[in-house]
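Hello,

I think I submitted the adenosine-5'-diphosphate job twice by accident. Can you confirm which output corresponds to this input? Input:
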Amino acid sequence: MPRILIINPGSTSTKLGIYENDEIIWKENFEHSAHTEDLLTPEERVKIRAKEIEGLLSKEGFKIEEFDAIACRGGILPPLESGTYEVDEEMVDYLLHKTGVDHPSNLAAPIGRLLSRGNIPVYITDPVSVDEFWDEARLSGIPQIERRSLFHALNMKAVARKVAEEMGKPLEEMNFVIAHLGGGISVGLQVKGKMVDVNNANDEGPFSPNRTGELPVGDVVELAFSGKYTEKELLKRYTKQGGLLAYLGTDDLRKAMKLAANDPKAELVIEGMAYQIAKEIGGMCAVAGGNIDAIILTGSMAYNSDFVEKIKSYVARFALVVVEPGENELLALAEGAKRVLTGKENPKRFKVGETI
Ligand SMILES: Nc1ncnc2c1ncn2[C@@H]1O[C@H](COP(=O)(O)OP(=O)(O)O)[C@@H](O)[C@H]1O
Ligand SMILES: CCCC(=O)OP(=O)(O)O
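Support: Only one job matched these inputs. Its output is below.
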C-alpha cells in the first residue's frame, strides 16, 4: 500500500497530509508569514517552506525516504489536459521562472522536487491550468487577449466524480454547474466530464474573500495610469487584497458574517458576493441551455449554511443544488498519485510548447 506525502501550499499556510491504506492518516495546516514571503524570491520561498515541512515531519517521526511518492498541488502551468503529471526539472523551472501568474500553488511541485532529492517520484494532479474550454469560451472581446482556464480544477473535478457516483450515473452523461467558494471563487460548467467554461478564479468572475474578480475595464486602466501604484502593487490589490478584505478588513467569511449581524454595510457586501456568485451560476446554466443535472456548491465557504441559503435563494429554481462543503484536495492529490503508482494510469509528461 503506497505511503504518499501530500503538499498543498496556500497564500498564508501549507496543508500537508500523509496517505496510507486508502486514507489520510495524518494532516497538518501550518501558517507562514505571507507578508515576509512577499520580499523573497520564489527559490527562497521554496527552500524555507521545504525546510519547515521537513522539520515538522521529522518532529512527527516521518522520514522523507520512507514515502513512495510525493503528491503536490499543480500550479499555473500552460493549458494542460486533466490528469496526473510527473514533476521534472522543466516543470519546476516553468513554475519558478516562467509562469507569469504569482500564486502559491506554483510552489508545490518545486518544494516536492527539492524534498525528494531525486529519489522519490513527485506528481501533480489536475493543476490549476487544466483547460477543456469549448471554442466560444476562449473569446475575450479582443483578439490580443484570450480567456484562460485557471480554476480549482482538483477539487471541482473530484467533487463532480463524487456527486455523479452518488446520483448513480456516469460522469460522462452528466452536466454540472460547480461553484468552488474558497479564498478565490471558480464557477464552471462541466459538460459530460469536461469543464467547458469557467471564470478565471484569479481575475474574473465574482468578487471573493480576497479578490476583486471582474472589474470595469475603464476604471482599471485609469488607476493603472494614475501613477499611484506600481504594476505589482495593483495586481496585489486586485488578486490578494480585494473582495471582502477590501470592503470589511477581513477575508474570513465567518468574521464577516458576524459583522453583518449588526452592520448593514457588511450585510450588503455579503449579499453582493452571493449575488455575483448567483449571476455567474445563472450564466453557466444559460449557456448549457438549462440542461443541468445539479448545481454543486463546494469549497470552505459552503460550510456556512446562511451564506449557502443566500445563493440558493437565487439559483435553486434552475436545478437541484448539492452542497459539498470544504475541499478534498489532499485526498484528490493522493488518489491521483496512487492511480499512477498502482499502474491504473500512466503519468503524463509536461513539455513546454507541447500543451493543448
Ligand atoms: N468552517 C467554515 N465556515 C465558513 N467559512 C469558512 C469555514 N472555513 C473557512 N471558511 C472561509 O472560506 C474562505 C476560504 O477558505 P479556504 O478554503 O481555506 O481558502 P483557499 O481557497 O484559499 O484554500 C475564507 O473566507 C474562510 O473564512
Ligand atoms: C488561480 C485559481 C486557483 C485558486 O484561486 O486557488 P486558491 O483559492 O487556493 O488561491
